[in-house]
Amino acid sequence: MPFDPQPVLAGDLLTLRPLRPGDWEALYAVASDPLIWAQHPAADRYRPNVFRAFFDDAIASGGALVALDNATGAVIGSSRFHGYDAEASEVEIGWSFLARACWGGRYNGEMKRLMLTHAFGSVHTVLFVIGVGNRRSQAAVEKIGGMRRPGTRPGANGPSYVYALTAATYAAPSREQRMSDRQSVSTGSPYEPIIGLARAVRIGNVVAVAGTAPLDADGKTVGKGDVGAQTKRCFEISIAALEKLGATKGDVIRTRIMLTRIDDWRAAGEAHGEFFRDVKPVNTTVQVTRFIDPDWLVEVEVDAIVSGR
Q1: How far apart are CA 64 and CA 82, in angstroms?
Q2: Span 49-69, average pLDDT
Q3: Contact criterion met (CB below 8 Å) for 152 and 159
Q4: Structural domains in the chain, sorted by start
Q5: For a surface tag, which of 196, 202, 246, 255 has the fewest beta carbons within 10 Å of its beta carbon?
Q6: How do residues 190-214 score in pLDDT, each as one tens digit?
Q7: Helix (H/G/I), strand (E/B), else coil: 9
């Protein structure tokens, strides 16, 4: 497939479109922050005349993209495709920067994913050329599977390392890469260390909350004999665990309610509705024989997929 160096790429958080001469003022408003360039070989790129040269070169390259925040429509950064080589089946991604308000991984990660997915529709290998002192960008590329080629490449701003990322490596991250994205939380339940479980685990944008019983902060049963109160407490604990991992009840896609008496389904269902009436996740409600503590009338499980916001 012929490679298009200036596509329109839309994600959940941002959209990339071709850079235009009229974007100068908005893009420089972002680039004028000196801290953006602190680890970059061109540390003075925040100056108007220096950035003007960068901007003009981007326009002339025919591969520059501007990033727009989907929530506000504001310009938040830019990136570029460069040096497409059909014979070698490779293209470079670089000259990327984002407003500091968008730092922290989500925006940068989505921008990379959009560009890589587009590139791998046409080429086998994507290159990243990163200044030898820019450890932050090196670590980001290494995290997604980029391999540093031997030696350095000279440039106007000093030597750079060249990283190569193949379509196969990007599509199949290593176990170490997957596990580095794994997060978990505990709620202090006395059963967690005995069984060896986390209250919730997040990998990527998927969050799973373990079977949750109606316990208070001291590990004592809440609402003895009241299935509605116990169900509410279970979901309070579950939602608190979701929030610790960056999710909300609005991200919930599935719930499970396990009851010792199926005749209690209405009271448990009404409690469920207090939390999820507007969310409407899929639900399974079943009867079980008993729980660890005979005072527990209900346990719940929750699964969520974190949406871009």
Answers
A1: 8
A2: 96
A3: yes
A4: 9-177 (3.40.630.30), 181-305 (3.30.1330.40)
A5: 196
A6: 888 888 889 999 988 889 999 999 9
A7: strand
